[in-house]
């Protein structure tokens, strides 16, 4: 073997060893779940552990209903229900029940009575109806392709389902547990928000970088506007008093504030990369956002069109969804997990004086 060949083999071995070390380090980072730091604006209170169902657990939407927190597992199809305490810190919370299913689970919506839970399952193109108390299955409803986001629309007493690949919204009568209509959206829907003032629904359209206003009664879009400076809009929440939509943009790591009176973007703020979910604590004038990169961004709302980042907290890759409890002001963040049990992180806001729980 000549010298050139020996050198080539030597360097090939070195490259393979380096790549193996990088891969091992990356895998270790994905497996090991570190304790997030407590910062000036937020205190980490602990994890709520969930049962380990598979090697990989990617948790999706979190839905708060009275004192119950519903969490879906996209990897296993499991729906967890966590009973939140009336008093005390949330890290004492216990898992009360779960409802495993074969297909990927995404969103959960509760009917007006909070007795029925409707769960989207994208791989099966269906919505499951389960008893919210016992977590037992009741019915399965076929809907459009890629059932993802879901909510209860109180003004029309309907369950609204966003079907991503089908580019439609499916409407379900929660009493009859039947599809009663569909609405063509013209784009890929992501998160949505109900507007009790106009009795309409605002729907993000990810592939169009736009937001649409949907008239449920008329079964059609009545307005659609471009989201300037927003690429791939994902999470959305409505701040009704200021008439602003708060939207996170997965494609360019931004939070945009959309003025519903002027129908234009009024403010843009840089946040953690690949954001997916956003929540508003109206009493504290705080906005929380998380994304697939595992960055938890805390934003102060200084005015309808004025915002600044208080803190950016590094969590864990795949910790991309959250919910805020308006009663206690605790923030819950769902973690992804590889080879270990999934969990929900609990954060408590640090402020001078919190409003009294009600």
How many runs of DSSP E, i.e. beta strands?
Answer: 30
Q: Compute the gyration radius: what is it?
A: 22 Å
| Low-pLDDT regions | 24-28
Summarize model confidence as the mean pLDDT.
90
Beta-strand content: over 45%
Q: How large is the count of helical segments?
A: 1
Largest sheet: 4 strands, antiparallel
Instruction: Report how far apart the termini are.
Output: 80 Å
Shape by Cα distribution: globular
Oligomerization state of this entry? Answer: single chain
Structural class, by secondary structure, is: mainly beta
Q: What is the strand arrangement across the widest sheet?
A: 1-30-28-27
Helix residue percentage: under 10%
Note down, in words, how this protein is organized.
The protein is globular and about 70 Å long. The longest helix has 29 residues. By secondary structure, it is mainly β. It is built from one helix and 30 strands. The strands form eight sheets. A four-stranded antiparallel beta sheet has the order 1-30-28-27, with no helix packed on it.
